[in-house]
Amino acid sequence: MLHKLKNFVTTGLLLAFFVYLIFGAVIFHALESPAEEKMRIEFWEFKRNLSRRWQNMLTQEELQGMLDLLFKAQSWGLHPDSTEEKSSRKRWGMDGALGFSGALLTTIGYGHFAPVTNAGKAFCVAYATLGIPLTALTVSAIAERMRNFSRFLAKKISEKRPQWNRQTVERSCNAGRVVVGMVVFFVIPTWMVHIVEDWTYGDSFYFVFITLSSVGFGDYVTGERIDREYSVNLVFYRVFILLWTGFGMAFLGMVFTMMSKALK
Questions:
Q1: Which of 251, 232, 207, 30 has the alpha carbon at shortest distance from 112?
Q2: Which residues form the Potassium channel domain (predicted)?
Q3: pTM, entire model
Protein backbone atom coordinates (compact mmCIF):
# COMPACT_ATOMS: atom_id res chain seq x y z
CA MET A 1 0.00 0.00 0.00
CA LEU A 2 2.81 2.40 0.95
CA HIS A 3 4.70 1.51 -2.24
CA LYS A 4 1.65 2.31 -4.38
CA LEU A 5 1.16 5.59 -2.54
CA LYS A 6 4.78 6.61 -3.23
CA ASN A 7 4.35 5.75 -6.92
CA PHE A 8 1.19 7.83 -7.01
CA VAL A 9 2.93 10.79 -5.36
CA THR A 10 5.90 10.52 -7.75
CA THR A 11 3.61 10.44 -10.77
CA GLY A 12 1.70 13.42 -9.41
CA LEU A 13 4.92 15.36 -8.88
CA LEU A 14 6.06 14.62 -12.44
CA LEU A 15 2.75 15.84 -13.83
CA ALA A 16 2.89 18.92 -11.62
CA PHE A 17 6.46 19.61 -12.78
CA PHE A 18 5.54 19.50 -16.48
CA VAL A 19 2.41 21.58 -15.94
CA TYR A 20 4.48 24.14 -14.03
CA LEU A 21 7.13 24.05 -16.77
CA ILE A 22 4.57 24.79 -19.50
CA PHE A 23 2.90 27.43 -17.33
CA GLY A 24 6.24 29.22 -16.92
CA ALA A 25 6.98 29.04 -20.65
CA VAL A 26 3.59 30.54 -21.52
CA ILE A 27 3.95 33.40 -19.02
CA PHE A 28 7.56 34.20 -19.99
CA HIS A 29 6.59 34.16 -23.66
CA ALA A 30 3.71 36.55 -23.01
CA LEU A 31 5.84 38.93 -20.93
CA GLU A 32 9.12 38.94 -22.86
CA SER A 33 8.19 38.28 -26.49
CA PRO A 34 6.77 41.78 -27.21
CA ALA A 35 9.94 43.47 -25.90
CA GLU A 36 12.12 41.14 -27.96
CA GLU A 37 10.06 41.82 -31.09
CA LYS A 38 10.35 45.56 -30.50
CA MET A 39 14.14 45.29 -30.20
CA ARG A 40 14.34 43.22 -33.39
CA ILE A 41 12.31 45.81 -35.31
CA GLU A 42 14.52 48.64 -34.01
CA PHE A 43 17.66 46.73 -34.97
CA TRP A 44 16.50 45.98 -38.52
CA GLU A 45 15.44 49.61 -38.95
CA PHE A 46 18.83 50.79 -37.70
CA LYS A 47 20.61 48.42 -40.08
CA ARG A 48 18.52 49.57 -43.07
CA ASN A 49 19.16 53.23 -42.27
CA LEU A 50 22.87 52.59 -41.84
CA SER A 51 22.99 50.70 -45.12
CA ARG A 52 21.23 53.51 -47.00
CA ARG A 53 23.47 56.16 -45.46
CA TRP A 54 26.74 54.35 -46.20
CA GLN A 55 25.79 52.51 -49.39
CA ASN A 56 28.14 54.63 -51.52
CA MET A 57 31.08 54.07 -49.16
CA LEU A 58 30.63 50.51 -47.86
CA THR A 59 29.54 47.30 -49.51
CA GLN A 60 26.91 45.15 -47.83
CA GLU A 61 29.63 42.66 -46.85
CA GLU A 62 31.79 45.40 -45.31
CA LEU A 63 28.84 46.76 -43.36
CA GLN A 64 27.97 43.29 -42.08
CA GLY A 65 31.59 42.71 -41.11
CA MET A 66 31.64 45.98 -39.16
CA LEU A 67 28.47 45.04 -37.27
CA ASP A 68 29.83 41.55 -36.54
CA LEU A 69 33.00 43.10 -35.13
CA LEU A 70 30.97 45.45 -32.91
CA PHE A 71 28.89 42.57 -31.51
CA LYS A 72 32.00 40.47 -30.96
CA ALA A 73 33.79 43.34 -29.22
CA GLN A 74 30.80 43.89 -26.94
CA SER A 75 30.74 40.18 -26.03
CA TRP A 76 34.37 40.62 -24.93
CA GLY A 77 33.38 43.46 -22.64
CA LEU A 78 34.43 46.38 -24.83
CA HIS A 79 32.15 49.36 -24.35
CA PRO A 80 31.20 51.36 -27.48
CA ASP A 81 32.92 54.39 -25.92
CA SER A 82 36.21 52.49 -25.49
CA THR A 83 39.40 53.89 -27.00
CA GLU A 84 42.97 52.62 -27.02
CA GLU A 85 43.81 55.26 -24.41
CA LYS A 86 40.80 54.51 -22.21
CA SER A 87 39.75 50.93 -22.76
CA SER A 88 37.16 48.87 -20.89
CA ARG A 89 38.37 46.35 -18.31
CA LYS A 90 39.62 43.08 -19.76
CA ARG A 91 37.20 40.18 -19.43
CA TRP A 92 40.02 37.74 -18.72
CA GLY A 93 41.90 39.83 -16.18
CA MET A 94 42.56 38.12 -12.85
CA ASP A 95 39.28 39.36 -11.37
CA GLY A 96 37.30 38.25 -14.42
CA ALA A 97 38.98 34.84 -14.51
CA LEU A 98 38.23 34.41 -10.80
CA GLY A 99 34.57 35.25 -11.38
CA PHE A 100 34.36 32.82 -14.30
CA SER A 101 35.96 30.02 -12.25
CA GLY A 102 33.49 30.59 -9.43
CA ALA A 103 30.50 30.56 -11.80
CA LEU A 104 31.81 27.37 -13.40
CA LEU A 105 32.42 25.49 -10.14
CA THR A 106 29.05 26.45 -8.66
CA THR A 107 27.36 25.47 -11.98
CA ILE A 108 25.74 28.90 -12.21
CA GLY A 109 27.13 29.45 -15.70
CA TYR A 110 26.09 33.05 -16.32
CA GLY A 111 27.00 32.65 -19.99
CA HIS A 112 28.10 36.26 -20.49
CA PHE A 113 31.52 35.06 -21.65
CA ALA A 114 33.37 31.77 -22.12
CA PRO A 115 36.74 30.41 -23.31
CA VAL A 116 37.36 30.77 -27.05
CA THR A 117 40.73 29.04 -27.42
CA ASN A 118 40.92 25.26 -27.81
CA ALA A 119 43.30 25.04 -24.86
CA GLY A 120 40.93 27.11 -22.73
CA LYS A 121 37.96 24.91 -23.64
CA ALA A 122 39.91 21.72 -22.91
CA PHE A 123 41.06 23.04 -19.53
CA CYS A 124 37.50 24.16 -18.77
CA VAL A 125 36.23 20.59 -19.23
CA ALA A 126 38.99 19.06 -17.09
CA TYR A 127 38.72 21.77 -14.43
CA ALA A 128 34.93 21.40 -14.17
CA THR A 129 35.11 17.58 -14.11
CA LEU A 130 37.07 17.67 -10.86
CA GLY A 131 35.87 20.98 -9.47
CA ILE A 132 32.09 20.59 -9.70
CA PRO A 133 31.94 17.40 -7.56
CA LEU A 134 34.34 19.02 -5.09
CA THR A 135 32.12 22.11 -4.89
CA ALA A 136 28.99 19.97 -4.49
CA LEU A 137 30.59 18.06 -1.61
CA THR A 138 31.69 21.32 0.01
CA VAL A 139 28.25 22.91 -0.28
CA SER A 140 26.64 19.72 1.05
CA ALA A 141 29.02 19.70 4.02
CA ILE A 142 28.24 23.36 4.78
CA ALA A 143 24.49 22.64 4.63
CA GLU A 144 24.96 19.69 6.99
CA ARG A 145 26.84 21.90 9.47
CA MET A 146 23.96 24.38 9.35
CA ARG A 147 21.45 21.62 10.09
CA ASN A 148 23.61 20.24 12.90
CA PHE A 149 23.90 23.66 14.51
CA SER A 150 20.11 23.99 14.50
CA ARG A 151 19.74 20.55 16.11
CA PHE A 152 22.43 21.40 18.66
CA LEU A 153 20.67 24.65 19.54
CA ALA A 154 17.31 22.88 19.89
CA LYS A 155 18.91 20.25 22.14
CA LYS A 156 20.50 22.86 24.41
CA ILE A 157 17.24 24.79 24.71
CA SER A 158 15.34 21.60 25.55
CA GLU A 159 17.90 20.72 28.23
CA LYS A 160 17.54 24.15 29.84
CA ARG A 161 13.75 24.22 29.41
CA PRO A 162 12.62 20.57 29.71
CA GLN A 163 9.03 21.71 30.25
CA TRP A 164 8.90 23.01 26.67
CA ASN A 165 7.72 20.68 23.93
CA ARG A 166 10.78 19.32 22.07
CA GLN A 167 9.07 19.30 18.67
CA THR A 168 7.95 22.91 19.10
CA VAL A 169 11.49 23.92 20.06
CA GLU A 170 12.92 22.22 16.94
CA ARG A 171 10.38 23.92 14.70
CA SER A 172 11.12 27.28 16.30
CA CYS A 173 14.86 26.77 15.77
CA ASN A 174 14.28 25.82 12.14
CA ALA A 175 12.12 28.90 11.62
CA GLY A 176 14.75 31.09 13.28
CA ARG A 177 17.45 29.55 11.11
CA VAL A 178 15.47 30.40 7.98
CA VAL A 179 14.80 33.99 9.09
CA VAL A 180 18.45 34.62 10.00
CA GLY A 181 19.59 32.98 6.76
CA MET A 182 17.23 35.14 4.69
CA VAL A 183 18.69 38.26 6.28
CA VAL A 184 22.32 37.13 5.93
CA PHE A 185 22.13 35.64 2.43
CA PHE A 186 19.36 37.69 0.81
CA VAL A 187 18.62 41.02 2.51
CA ILE A 188 22.19 42.14 3.26
CA PRO A 189 23.67 41.01 -0.11
CA THR A 190 20.80 42.73 -1.94
CA TRP A 191 21.66 45.98 -0.19
CA MET A 192 25.41 45.55 -0.82
CA VAL A 193 24.96 44.75 -4.51
CA HIS A 194 22.63 47.73 -4.84
CA ILE A 195 25.36 49.99 -3.44
CA VAL A 196 28.32 48.55 -5.37
CA GLU A 197 26.64 47.90 -8.73
CA ASP A 198 24.16 50.80 -8.62
CA TRP A 199 21.28 48.48 -9.54
CA THR A 200 17.75 48.96 -8.26
CA TYR A 201 16.76 46.98 -5.17
CA GLY A 202 14.46 44.89 -7.34
CA ASP A 203 17.24 44.03 -9.80
CA SER A 204 19.66 43.37 -6.94
CA PHE A 205 17.29 40.93 -5.23
CA TYR A 206 16.60 39.30 -8.60
CA PHE A 207 20.35 38.76 -9.08
CA VAL A 208 20.74 37.36 -5.55
CA PHE A 209 17.98 34.79 -5.95
CA ILE A 210 18.89 33.77 -9.52
CA THR A 211 22.52 33.29 -8.44
CA LEU A 212 21.86 31.31 -5.25
CA SER A 213 19.38 29.06 -7.03
CA SER A 214 22.23 28.35 -9.53
CA VAL A 215 20.11 29.46 -12.49
CA GLY A 216 22.45 32.28 -13.53
CA PHE A 217 20.92 33.79 -16.66
CA GLY A 218 23.84 36.19 -17.10
CA ASP A 219 21.73 39.32 -17.55
CA TYR A 220 23.08 40.63 -14.22
CA VAL A 221 26.66 39.76 -13.23
CA THR A 222 28.64 41.48 -10.49
CA GLY A 223 31.88 43.24 -11.35
CA GLU A 224 31.03 43.40 -15.05
CA ARG A 225 29.72 46.95 -15.42
CA ILE A 226 31.83 48.25 -18.30
CA ASP A 227 30.30 51.70 -17.89
CA ARG A 228 31.18 51.99 -14.19
CA GLU A 229 34.33 52.63 -12.16
CA TYR A 230 34.18 50.41 -9.08
CA SER A 231 35.15 51.84 -5.70
CA VAL A 232 36.11 48.38 -4.37
CA ASN A 233 38.97 46.05 -5.25
CA LEU A 234 37.45 43.70 -7.82
CA VAL A 235 39.57 40.68 -6.83
CA PHE A 236 38.41 40.88 -3.19
CA TYR A 237 34.90 41.63 -4.42
CA ARG A 238 34.91 38.45 -6.53
CA VAL A 239 36.20 36.40 -3.59
CA PHE A 240 33.43 37.78 -1.37
CA ILE A 241 30.80 36.98 -4.02
CA LEU A 242 32.21 33.45 -4.38
CA LEU A 243 32.10 32.80 -0.61
CA TRP A 244 28.62 34.27 -0.36
CA THR A 245 27.49 32.10 -3.28
CA GLY A 246 28.85 28.90 -1.72
CA PHE A 247 27.35 29.46 1.72
CA GLY A 248 24.16 30.93 0.25
CA MET A 249 23.61 27.94 -2.04
CA ALA A 250 24.07 25.66 0.96
CA PHE A 251 21.46 27.64 2.87
CA LEU A 252 18.99 27.70 -0.01
CA GLY A 253 19.51 23.98 -0.61
CA MET A 254 18.78 23.38 3.07
CA VAL A 255 15.56 25.42 2.80
CA PHE A 256 14.48 23.52 -0.32
CA THR A 257 15.17 20.23 1.51
CA MET A 258 13.02 21.37 4.44
CA MET A 259 10.22 22.32 2.03
CA SER A 260 10.52 18.97 0.25
CA LYS A 261 10.29 17.04 3.53
CA ALA A 262 7.30 19.12 4.61
CA LEU A 263 5.46 18.23 1.39
CA LYS A 264 6.06 14.48 1.77
A1: 207
A2: 90-147, 182-263
A3: 0.68
